[in-house]
Amino acid sequence: MRLFYLFDSKNEGVEMIPERKYRDKEINGFGEATLEQFLVDHPEVIPSEDMDSDDPPRFLVIKNQAGVTVGSMDILLIDHNGVPTVIEAKLVDNREIRRSVLAQGIEYLACLQSEWTADRIIEEGQEFRENLNVDFQTEFEKRLGISLDEEFLQKMSANLANNRMRLIVASDEIPSQLLKVIEFMNETSVFDVYGLEIRLFASGGKKILAPKLLGQSERVRERKSTRVYSKWNEERFFAALGEDVPDVVKITRDLMSFGVKVSGRQVEWGSGKESGSFTARLIVNGKRFSLFSVYTYGKFSINIGWNYEKLEELNPNLSEDYRVRAIKELAVDFERRGWESWHLLPTAELSSLLPDNAKAFKKIITDFVAEVKKLLGET
Fold first, then answer.
1. CA distance 342 to 154
2. For residue 192, what are the β-bridge partners?
3. Is the pTM of this model over 0.85?
4. Where is the domain boundary, 227, 243, 264?
5. Which DSSP symbol is given to 264?
6. Strand 299-302 to strand 287-295: parallel, antiparallel, or no bridges (unpaired)?
7. Where among 197, 227, 257 does a domain terminate?
8. Three-state DSSP class for 315?
9. pLDDT tens-digit series, residues 39-70
């Protein structure tokens, strides 16, 4: 049995807390479900800095018991780089922890890659949060530190297509035999495999969990870290946009300046591998509102509808009113389902704002900003 020591500097003493089993009824344990639910509630316990010290993955739980053809993944997550991650929770006394858990996990990854799309992942995440009475967009931004947009979905789709995924085997103890196989797989596979050992210590009503990530050597980590996407910037964005369509370049620079002016803050740059973007976002009373985005492939999106859940109680017609207005004044058809969904992004050609529609576009965004501030009581 291992012991955990708590040091009390005031009393100059230590308290020895013994290691306990997850199935121990004396501490209200009920087996693998205890470990699984803890990871669903607290994905931040995963020591992601051991995956990438320069850019530790930030995780959002999409769903637990997520179904595929061959069964149900214990937990499905995504990180801020759009990497799908499957967690299988097995305690050390489960015979499957020795070998079959890896075969099962790999089978889940294969089904995830062939049966799920980026859109479905987001839809399942939305439904999961709705059942918990939690706003998905708020949780997405809180957990991942980014906004959900077309660029993120493209990145996630590319990750699925290129088998850039993770499998994490979570247990109270990772057997040495299993660890050897995990390390071998990391040397040879495109996807990543980790052992997540979370030991449980408990005494007198106190519970302490000690997580440790196992399975990837520094050499493998360095080799695989080259796949991380970097943020775009102004120079890189306009180089990708190209100078062969000067009117589009001019309107793009104008929209970038307008985004800074109307939001009172710098535009936010995307991190897509193939295409870049910038997004104007407004912050009022701590709440973030996406206004519009511009992309290196010559399109823009109006993101007003994405905010409807944040404003629905204050003005249930706001989103639809602006959609109808945008269609009428810009002569661009923004279908409602896409207007209010991050994963069905309605875009239009930047050239459609020329020569005179740019003024109408700016007026729509400016009026929305003024209305949001009024609704939230900011002058």
1. 12
2. 166
3. no
4. 227
5. T
6. antiparallel
7. 227
8. coil
9. 999 999 999 988 887 788 999 999 999 999 99
